[in-house]
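Quick question about two entries, pasted in order.
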Amino acid sequence: MDTIASLFSFITTPVSWVIVQFHSVYGKVFGPDTGWAWGLSIVSLVILIRICLIPLFVKQIKATRAMQTLQPEMKKIQERYKNDKQRQSEEMMKLYKESGTNPLSSCLPILAQSPFFFALYHVLNGIATGSTIGVINDSLLASARKAHIFGAPLAAKFTDGSSKVEALGATLTDVRVVTAIMIVMMSASQFYTQRQLMTKNVDTTVKTPFMQQQKMLMYVFPVMFAIFGINFPVGVLVYWLTTNVWTMGQQMYVIHNNPTPGSKAQAAYLERLTKHVTHHEKTRSRGEKAIVKAIVSKGRDRNEFERKFINSLTKVGLVAQPDGTVAKGETAAVEAEDGTPTTAAPRRQQPKRQTKAQRQSAAAKAADESAENAVEDAEPKTSLTKSDEPEDAKPATAAKKPAPKPAGGTRSKAQSGQRKGPQRPKSPSKK
């Protein structure tokens, strides 16, 4: 143990110094020997470490996005070598190497904070054994040994015997109940974080070995935390539970505001973004502009959720611009499922509904017009000059002969506006 502690001496001293500085602040509020002062010091240490790891977390997100761009190539490799798993794995690793991506990039935050975890473990182990470590002197060591969290000392473990627990001023029942609850909470938070990642923020259209690995870790990590947790001091359990809660909240924020393309989280995000943009007719935040800009730049490589987003904007007369903004457009072009732009048929304009009074006035006007036309047709038409010959002296050839019947017994086609069948000859007009 001393050999391992000496290996981590370069980090145990800074960690112990940070804990002491936070303890001096919380000790003035809660008292220097209370579990709140020491427990909150450990929680503050976790928050400080995770804030320092935010750039690494951003790098992890970028690496994950780079992995998403390789999904089409991964799908081709799966289809090409679907009967040869070994060759499929070799081609996948070759693709990772050529593109410069790392499928294990999601483990970077855990690996980066591992030295701090081991340093804190050795600091708390020194408190349990009564030995000073780092900047923790004898007075601080005595104060830390008196600190209890819900009746359990900071340095106590689930596997400790009754004699060791009594030396720390506690009972074995209190220690085991508190540690068991914290182990269950730690394992449950780890399982929920991994499950949230697999069910909401993963592109389900492509099944890759990386996804299978993450699914396996979803069940392996909680079991590992439960097994190793019984050997962790209460202070280390506080550290690990705090970092799990931080990771869960940080991941929820990323999934809600910057989801993985092709995932269920992206479908929900684009649905919310569609309602927001169509209501305000613009993108307001920088994050919204970045999402819209990325979707526009994809062109025909958009997935079904992104095409649905573009089509929803087009239907209301908005067009997404390359810079991430939206503007009103006159065209009604939408994209098909394969990304091909098609022109949407214009909506049929329904006639405006008239009131009852308007309909009655229109009917009365039509009736008056038809009556006037009937009167005009009934009046006899005479020529201005009368003929001297009697009417019966006119030659019979003057009368209009009926049209000859078509040959072959076929009916002549009715002209436009006339009814079918032979037409009734009109009477000759009187002159």
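Here is the second entry:
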Amino acid sequence: MDARDDASTVEHAAEAFAAEVAYWREVRGLSKRELARRMGFDPSYVSHVESGRHKPTEDFARRAEDILNAGKALWKRWLDYESAKARTAPSAAPPPPRRAEQPYATGSAIVVEHDAARLDYDGRQYRLTMRRLLRNTGSEPITRYLIRISVDRYPGEPERSNAHYREHPLTWDELALTATCRGEDMRWQAKHDRDAFKEVWLLFENDQGRYPLYPGESVWIEYAYSVGDEKWGRWFQRAVRLPTEHLEVELAFPAEFDPTVWGTETSMTAEAAPLRTAPVRRDEDGVRVFSWSTSTPALHARYRLEWRFRTRPERDTSQGEFR
């Protein structure tokens, strides 16, 4: 392995650590600023680590592990990073500084006019469909949009979840990710690929051409993916990462399972509290649908919906069948 390979390995280990921090921060429902505050760092420090502008330190790893209760997952990523650095030849020239990656082009700004999520469950598999109306309020074309896929089968039991996903990681094949814009397929590129966490760039292009989102324009995008219920815990969280004018969520379950749904909301300044309005229930063709919405949600707010099934057939997991 030459010096360039060593440097690449170190960079990848640092990126893996940053992605792990982002995953557990999302699971715990914390903004970057709030996590930094709880760790005793400058408000922007977590953002710098997650973006790669700052490399992880042992102190950061210990504090993050303690606050996020990640079941030693963060500490393991830190050890991987340290091992990668140790393998780097002492005589190797240091890699050139990497320019911090910006989510979107300088001069661009996205507002989400409408954010609509629908989660369908058929008794074995969850299928999430996201529809967003995006408006470019900046001065430059936007050519890509970042999405996150994050799961936690056993909330509150990080070591159990980590062990579960090490043995049964999310795969691209099972996710079957699709994305469209203006009736056109969107090409996508993986940014981070972890056992229970993915970050993906949706590109405003495909094999037939490119269709950037120009200043002043609005456009609907839609993407969808699937996750088996053995990998999806009974909760769904929406995080407000961009200025958003309206947010809505629908959860659709088999009516025969007699589902019940409740939710909480958190912000940068408040702990978790019950949703201010209750989800609305309706039945349609054997499916029970719960709807909830809010207007002008606060930036960095998080809305978490949870559910349980009061009656459902027992499933023989060895055969994947109900009985």
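Reply: Confidence is low (pLDDT under 50) at residues 1-5, 96-102, 316-323. Helices lie at 3-27, 32-39, 45-51, 58-68, 73-87, 158-167, 172-175. Hope that helps.
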